[in-house]
Specification:
With 602 residues, chain A is mainly alpha-helical. Chain A is built from 23 helices and six strands. The mean pLDDT of chain A is 85. Chain B has 489 residues and is mostly helical. The two termini of chain B are 17 Å apart. The chains are: A mainly alpha (602), B mainly alpha (489).
Chain lengths: 602, 489
């Protein structure tokens, strides 16, 4: 049975390719049904745990299906299914066939990666994941440069991890996580810290933490709409998988005497602080969301790296929430791009009447991003705040509060830039998204609202992981989360907020003496506005604020990497002049080598 | 137990005889020369497969004209050599097939004649059992290579060929001096015989001989700083020639080093370390310099020296698993580099632009050739599901097992740089251009690429080429094996 499932998974991209030659509609429905079936399967074998291993390349790879795998598999296939569904109306281009072949392969590879429980297999599938991501993005014109940057960074990270792995292999002689974890105590402290950082560099790069985040805004901001969803909602989360394995599996038995985990935690804290500020001034919607992703993954990493149970629960819950609300945002932006052809906030605006459901979806999502009840982002952020407070990391707490406040600014910019204000004339004929695009949006929006009131459903899943990893469990019910000093009743808070909202809305409807006018029936400073001169300013939206903080955020790490590259290029260019083409010089070198060797040895 | 049969001899004689035939009757069969030489290589390939099959059980020896060693010429093939022979002749078949379409102008008879001689040389090098014949075959190989570099009659190519000639001859000269010194000490040329008598030689003398051998063969195997000829020669030659130069010719030099150190010399730690350090420097220099090339073939040429450094590093790392890994890396380098030269070379030639920019948008115009470039590059980078991943990870594991982490770090640094410039190549492939010109690649040329792609991926997924460790062991012990059957005293 298991063999058949695995075989089915492995050959599905090829089947898709064959179907693609027949008809792209057959192919797409095949993928939709297939990913749906996998999703059902995962839910069905939710509670079971089994291991298997197979030989590949003369090595034995060990795989375990457990709660950690289920967590990530649900993310992968949930989002994968929605993306397939979302892409149904977009089947026009010819080269799509290879694209979907690669995408399906990526789903498979990432799925196997979540099961992998030894370092060789982990490295193998990790590299494949990076490679497939690279090829998918490099084939799409706007993101070609970004893809190169991404792949260079990920190779660097992978090799750094490989050095760590090989040091462990040299000392312990095994790749298996459990074996390594058990033998960890025999290593010296310095070596342990070294290995910890070498391996964590890889996950910091994938998680876009300072100082390695520079690839992410480019890649997530420029990749194809629906692939951005996958990048942000799923692939970004693999840094968390790595962190969990590193910190809670490998180093769990051996306390390193210094708090190296906090170093990572604070790096992530710096990155969410910086990313939130930078996000405010983006004019590309996707780039804005990309920076927001850096911030949100930063919250999760900081929380998880605290090493206490509340932080773990909060961080993991935030991962789920981020997957949902950021997926929702990227889907809507992809839909807007599908309808209007641009994601530039300066060129959009006023789409609320044309795409009302998308507007509602985005409204729900940005409330979640900002961490305001009644959405899911509030609960997880609240848990992270509490964990930071409880463990006394006040600096990180302040960073996070500032960052969250700033996130209000950028989410407002996002929704205002796309949906509010006056509409551009060229967008007057824009229609609401087609049904198959709306359905994923609706599903994710409902998910955002649902987890805001009933966080227990997600926490149950995290609880199992915590149990498996030996982390203390925290008490919670479907609606209530108990932290050290307080209990948060999510449903109560959510109902309260909904109630207040409903009441105010009712008042607004009853008491207002408003008159419905057209968007262009408007004036500004005594001047009548025409469609050519709409009242919708977006450029330099936060100019005064930008002036205030400009001096702090002008430092761009890209420059640092460019300088590094220039130095390398110049040095190499200088050195390679020895290949001058001068034959006499070559002969002299050969004679000199001979003479030196003779001098040394004889 | 060693089997005596003549298969190794056929590998040399078949191309040699046809080359002679072409020389004499080329006027009459001009049209058929390409096809005939292609068929000859197919024959060679089949023989090498047969030989590989036999060698799985016992090594094969050849006694020529019933002269007993150490006097007569004899050939000796272990698993190691036979696998090399299979790869060599496979590349031969593919390159001849490629040449059918690639070489359209110029003196075809001369080209094919020299190419056949090249394969005479390299098959001879890989089979011979005595050091003087090794030298002779090496000269055949080198001289045909010198001329083949300049065969396109382009100014720069002729200049590169000339420089290659001077430096290669210097290398041969030093090698020959080494052989002379060796002969003056042991009075014999047979590998097994030398190995037996080597223990009596003074260590000072051994080092002296070693210096000449390493310098001489170092030039041929492109060790830094003896590899100045390589980037010019490999980038100026026609692509089919670049492929066999980068894939095969420098490996012949390396094979010489291996024979010299592991069969003849025995264990002299100083020389081992010397070659090891040379390997590291070569790897770093090659990869870093390749990183800044804007000419595709020149970049590949530097990459070849980098890969050679890696292979040398592994072979002279000191343990058996490392040698096995080095052997795999060597095979990987041959296959991938040949694929890169052939596929990229065809695209660039049809666009008449030899810079990296000439590859722009190639993926949409030449899909199969571009996939060839992609797979070749990924395999050299060591990305999973290619043979390169397996061989590289084996090398790294080998160094990690003997706790030489600094070597691991250096290798990964070089790999990272390698990754950076190959990524740049891949990016160019996917660029969209407005180039409306369409070139068709003949089906048979695409077949060449597909064969190599399938082999690289196939071995990447299922890397069971045979008992590599056993081959290496047999190779190191071949003097003993040879002594047993050939009555070497």
């Amino acid at each position: 049975m298991l063999n058949k499932i695995i075989l089915g998974l492995l050959i599905s991209p090829i089947i898709g390719l064959i179907f693609g030659w027949l008809s792209r509609y057959i192919r797409q429905w095949f993928y939709v049904l297939f990913s749906g079936a996998v999703l059902v399967l995962i839910v069905k074998i939710f509670n079971s745990a089994f291991n298997f291993s197979f030989s590949l390349l003369g090595f034995r790879f060990k795989f375990v299906f457990d709660n950690i795998s289920v967590f990530f598999l649900l993310l992968i296939w949930g989002i994968g299914f929605l993306i397939y569904f979302f892409s149904l109306p977009q089947l026009k281009k010819k080269s799509d066939n290879i694209y979907y072949f690669l995408f399906q392969s990526l789903l498979i590879v990432t799925s196997i990666l979540t099961l992998s429980r030894d370092f060789l297999g982990f490295f193998f599938f990790w590299e494949l994941m990076s490679l497939l991501t690279f090829i998918i993005t490099v084939m799409y014109k706007p993101s070609r440069k970004a893809a190169v940057k991404y792949f260079v960074f990920s190779i660097f990270g992978a090799y750094s991890m490989l050095i760590g792995i090989l040091i462990l292999y040299g000392k312990i002689g095994s790749f298996d996580f459990i074996t390594i974890s058990n033998s960890m105590t025999s290593l010296s402290v310095g070596l342990k810290i070294g290995v910890f950082f070498l391996i964590s560099v890889n996950f910091l790069i994938k998680g876009a933490v300072v100082p390695f985040y520079v690839w992410l805004p480019d890649l997530h901001g420029k990749a194809e709409g629906k692939f951005s969803v996958f990048l942000s909602s799923v692939l970004l989360k693999f840094s968390i998988l790595g962190m969990i394995i590193l910190y809670f599996v490998l180093f769990v038995n051996s306390t390193i005497s210094y708090n190296v985990n906090l170093v990572i935690g604070y790096l992530a804290a710096i990155s969410f602080l910086v990313a939130s500020f930078v996000a405010v001034f983006q004019s590309s919607a996707k780039r804005l969301l990309a920076y927001s992703s850096i911030a949100n993954i930063g919250y999760a990493i900081t929380a998880i790296m605290l090493g206490n149970s509340l932080g773990f629960y909060g961080g993991m819950f935030h991962i789920i929430n981020h997957t949902i609300f950021k997926g929702l945002l990227f889907l809507i932006v992809a839909g807007v791009v599908f309808r209007t052809g641009t994601d530039n906030l300066d060129e959009l605006g006023g789409l609320i009447k044309r795409m009302p459901l998308s507007f509602v979806g985005m409204l729900i999502a940005i409330i979640a991003v900002a961490g305001v009840p009644p959405m899911n982002g509030f609960v997880s952020k609240w848990m992270i705040y509490s964990s930071l407070f409880n463990s006394g990391e006040y600096l990180a707490l302040i960073f996070m509060l500032v960052s969250s406040t700033v996130s209000f600014l950028y989410v407002y910019r996002l929704i205002h830039g796309i949906f509010l204000g006056q509409i551009q004339e060229k967008h007057l004929k824009v229609k609401e998204l087609p049904l198959s695009m709306l359905l994923p949006v609706i599903i994710l929006a409902l998910g955002t609202m649902f987890l805001g009131s009933y966080p227990g459903y997600a926490l149950k899943l995290i609880d199992k992981i915590a149990f498996a990893l030996g982390i203390n469990q925290i008490p919670f019910t479907l609606t209530k989360v108990t932290m050290q000093a307080s209990t948060l009743n999510a449903r109560f808070v959510a109902s309260l907020f909904m109630g207040i909202f409903g009441f105010t809305f009712l008042l607004f409807v009853i008491l207002s003496k408003s008159r419905r006018v057209s968007q262009y029936d408007n004036y500004n400073a005594g001047q009548i506005l025409t469609p050519e001169q709409p009242y919708h300013y977006t450029e330099n939206f936060y100019r005064p604020f930008q002036r205030t903080v400009e001096m702090w955020i002008k430092y761009d790490l890209n420059k640092f990497y460019n300088v590094l590259k220039e130095y390398l290029n110049d040095t190499v260019d200088m050195l390679r002049k020895i290949y001058s083409g001068d034959l006499q010089f070559y002969i002299i070198v050969i004679i000199a080598v001979l003479a030196v060797l003779l001098g040394i040895f004889v | 137990m060693v089997v005596l049969n003549n298969y190794p001899l056929y590998l040399i004689l078949l191309p040699l005889a046809s080359a002679f035939l072409f020389f004499m009757v080329s006027h009459y069969i001009k049209k058929f020369i390409p096809v005939i030489s292609f068929l000859v290589m197919i024959g060679n390939f089949l023989i090498s497969l047969k030989l590989f099959h036999i060698v799985q059980v016992h090594p094969v020896g050849v006694k020529l004209a019933n002269f007993l060693p150490p006097i007569g010429i004899n050939l000796f093939v272990t698993g190691f050599n036979s696998l090399l022979l299979v790869v060599i002749n496979l590349i031969g078949v593919l390159v001849f097939l490629y040449s059918l379409y690639y070489i359209k102008e110029g003196d075809k008879a001369k080209y094919y004649l020299l190419l056949l001689l090249f394969f005479v040389g390299i098959n001879g090098v890989a089979t011979t059992g005595d050091i003087f014949n090794f030298f002779v075959f090496f000269e055949i190989l080198s001289i045909s290579a010198f001329v083949l570099v300049g065969i396109g009659n382009k100014k720069l190519a002729i200049e590169a060929g000339f420089k290659y000639l001077i430096q290669g001859s210097l290398g041969s000269l030093l090698f020959l001096i080494g052989i002379g010194l060796l002969y003056s000490q042991v009075g014999t040329l047979n590998f097994a015989d030398i190995a037996n008598k080597m223990s009596a030689v003074d260590i000072k003398m051994k080092l002296l001989i070693g210096v000449f051998f390493i310098t001489g063969l170092g030039i041929e195997s492109a060790l830094f700083p003896l590899n100045f000829w390589l980037p010019d020669a490999h980038s100026m030659a026609p692509s089919s020639i670049s492929a066999i130069l980068s894939g095969l010719a420098i490996n012949a030099g390396l094979y010489g080093l291996l024979v010299f150190y592991f069969i003849i010399m025995g264990n002299v730690a100083v020389l081992l370390n010397l070659i090891f350090i040379a390997g590291i420097v070569t790897m770093l220099v090659g990869e870093f310099f390749a990183y800044r090339q804007s000419n595709y073939k020149r970049m590949l040429a530097f990459s070849s020296t980098g890969q050679m450094g890696l292979v040398v590093l592994a072979f002279f790392g000191g343990t058996l698993p490392l040698m096995a890994a080095g052997f795999l890396q060597l095979i990987n380098h041959i296959l991938s580099k040949v694929l890169l030269f052939l596929s990229g070379g065809y695209i660039l030639k049809s666009r008449k632009d030899y810079n990296l920019d000439g590859l722009k948008g190639a993926f949409y115009k030449f899909p199969v050739a571009s996939v060839g470039i992609i797979i070749g590059a990924l395999s050299l980078m060591g990305v999973p599901l290619t043979l390169g991943f397996y061989s590289k990870i084996k090398i790294l594991l080998g160094f990690s097992a003997i706790n030489k982490i600094w070597v691991v770090i250096v290798i990964l640094l070089a790999s990272f740089i390698e990754g950076v410039y190959f990524i740049n190549v891949l990016r160019k492939l996917f660029a969209r251009t407005d180039d409306k010109k369409d070139f068709n690649i003949p089906v048979l040329i695409n077949l060449v690429f597909i064969v190599l792609i399938v082999i690289i991926i196939g071995l990447g997924v299922y890397p069971h080429i045979g008992n590599i460790n056993g081959y290496i062991k047999d190779f190191i012990d071949s003097s003993k094996l040879m002594s047993g059957v050939l009555n070497v005293k």
